[in-house]
């Protein structure tokens, strides 16, 4: 369980998060949606402890960061480090010893090649593999479906569902609604740094329709000549 | 076109100087002063000093032949401009050293360096198809990255050490061992992204201890074979080998400590000055290490 109480975060004069309060329960998958700049990544970084914020973040496992796997939206790889070495670096940092790595390479990545020469999708899959092999209790997946192919997308959906079945808590941000629909128990809508709405699984269909109507009405007519 | 490229390089250089926090006029003067000091120290032992100057410049020239960099230049400039730029870069990089070697009447070394500068302008070293294998894959990362960037220099130093053994020149062997150790120390000037540190679940003290252990182990894998052979062949001079070994045992942890004192920025003037000071008189580390170690612990608390 992760509890956020009145989390606020500013960068200079610009307030990105406003008093965000929410409880993420064990064994559930939460989707975070919002326009670009709504504060999703900042919220994730605050939960991970990579940014300082006012308010309180508590978890049933302490310290939270040692039990949290964080897949960033744009994973960074040092040059001259292979995929295999990146995985060892991240798992070793959590005190995990990985045996038979080649058998656990579910995305069939070229692990002997330099990670920074991978394509965007492969980088994401590599970072995800490393995060999963850390064997955490909580996961933050920032745009995990971005740039990955259809097969990997299906594998990733299955992975999320299995993690959920294992009682792990997962927070996902994605702009692809269908992926959230398939995996999430609840969706949080973030607007200008505030949780404007929470949507339960049974309301996903209505929410999708509502979003479509709102977005299409607002924007698409402007483009049509 | 070339003019613009050079102006851009100048801008980048001034940004590096500004990043040191020193006034723009002072930083280059200090850098030149430091270069002069290094050269002066090296030329106290003209033969080995010349080797060191050649090797240092060789490494710099080698770095400039990196494939991605050269591909970018080739895509941006036509063939003639590309080779002109590469020649200019190599000349600028080696000019100071060539001038110094000439001033010391070390004609042959100056000629070799000039030749290297010209030849390297026409070379592009492609990265290996997959990656250069290292025995440290399960214990990344500074050493692996550093080794892959400097493997050619390490090979050259090993070859020189072999020549030293063959020619019964014990000083040359010790010089090569020191060169390898210094190269290993330089691996720790690269700060990793905060996310890498965030992943660690260790306490700052545990984190540093693990880094020390690995850094020493990995460096000793390179230098111990040479030092043991040295102590075996020149058994009467075993104490020299012990002094060099002692230096390594102190300098590697010290370099790692300084990296995390400066973190998340790169090691800069203050840390480099301390490191140079300690490299020339390493018992000084005994006095300085505890102070900097505590500073590193304090700094790491913000990230771990």
From TrEMBL, chain A:
It comes from Sphingobacterium puteale. It holds the Pfam family ABC_tran. GO terms for molecular function: ATP binding; ATP hydrolysis activity. Residues 2-217 form the ABC transporter domain. PROSITE patterns: ABC_TRANSPORTER_2 (PS50893). Keywords: ATP-binding, Nucleotide-binding, Transport. This is ATP-binding cassette domain-containing protein. The keyword Ligase does not apply.
Automatic annotation (TrEMBL), chain B:
It comes from Sphingobacterium puteale. Keywords: Membrane, Transmembrane, Transmembrane helix. This is ABC transporter permease. It comes from the Bacteria. The chain crosses the membrane at residues 21-42, 48-64, 85-102, 108-129, 150-166, 172-190, 215-233, 239-262, 274-294.
């Amino acid at each position: 369980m992760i509890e956020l109480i009145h989390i606020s975060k500013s960068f200079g004069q610009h307030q990105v998060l406003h008093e965000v309060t929410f409880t993420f329960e064990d064994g559930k998958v939460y989707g975070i949606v919002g326009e670009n700049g709504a504060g999703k990544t900042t919220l994730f970084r605050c939960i991970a402890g990579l940014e300082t914020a006012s308010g309180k973040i508590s978890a049933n496992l302490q310290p939270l960061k040692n039990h949290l796997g964080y897949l960033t939206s744009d994973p960074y790889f040092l040059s001259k480090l292979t995929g295999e070495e990146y995985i060892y670096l991240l798992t070793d940092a959590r005190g995990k010893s990985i045996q038979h790595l080649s058998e656990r390479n579910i995305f069939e990545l070229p692990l002997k090649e330099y990670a920074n020469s991978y394509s965007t999708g492969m980088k994401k899959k590599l970072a995800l593999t490393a995060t999963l092999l850390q064997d955490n209790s909580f996961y933050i997946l920032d745009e995990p479906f971005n740039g990955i192919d259809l097969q990997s997308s299906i594998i990733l959906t299955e992975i999320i569902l299995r993690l959920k079945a294992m009682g792990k808590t997962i927070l996902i941000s994605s702009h692809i609604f269908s992926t959230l629909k398939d995996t999430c128990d609840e969706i949080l809508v973030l607007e200008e740094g505030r949780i404007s709405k929470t949507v339960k699984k049974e309301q996903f269909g209505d929410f999708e329709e509502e979003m479509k109507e709102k977005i299409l009405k607002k924007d698409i007519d402007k483009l049509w000549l | 076109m070339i003019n613009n490229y050079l102006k851009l390089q100048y801008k980048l250089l001034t940004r590096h100087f500004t990043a040191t926090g020193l006034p723009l006029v002072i930083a280059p003067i200090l850098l030149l002063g430091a270069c002069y000091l290094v050269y002066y120290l090296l030329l106290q032992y003209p033969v080995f000093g010349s080797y060191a100057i050649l090797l240092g410049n060789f490494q710099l020239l080698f770095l400039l032949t990196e494939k991605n960099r050269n591909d970018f230049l080739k895509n941006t400039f036509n063939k003639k401009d590309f080779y002109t730029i590469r020649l200019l870069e190599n000349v600028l990089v080696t000019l100071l050293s060539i001038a110094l070697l000439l001033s010391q009447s070390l004609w042959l070394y100056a000629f070799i360096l000039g030749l290297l500068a010209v030849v390297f302008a026409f070379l592009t070293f492609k990265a290996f198809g997959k990656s250069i294998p290292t025995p440290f894959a399960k214990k990344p990362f500074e050493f692996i990255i550093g080794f892959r960037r400097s493997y050619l220099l390490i090979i050259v130093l090993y070859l020189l050490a072999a020549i030293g053994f063959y020619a019964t020149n014990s000083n040359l062997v010790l010089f090569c061992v020191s060169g390898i150790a210094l190269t290993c120390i330089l691996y720790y000037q690269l700060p990793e992204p905060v996310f890498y540190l965030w992943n660690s679940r260790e306490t700052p003290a545990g984190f540093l201890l693990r880094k020390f252990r690995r850094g020493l182990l990995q460096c000793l894998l390179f230098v111990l074979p040479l030092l043991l052979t040295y102590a075996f062949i020149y058994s009467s001079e075993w104490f020299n080998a012990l002094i060099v070994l002692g230096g390594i045992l102190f300098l590697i942890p010290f370099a790692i400590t300084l990296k995390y004192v400066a973190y998340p920025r790169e090691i800069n003037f203050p840390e480099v000055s301390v490191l140079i000071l300690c490299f020339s008189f390493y018992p000084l580390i005994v006095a300085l290490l505890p102070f900097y170690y505590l500073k590193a612990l304090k700094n790491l608390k913000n990230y771990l």
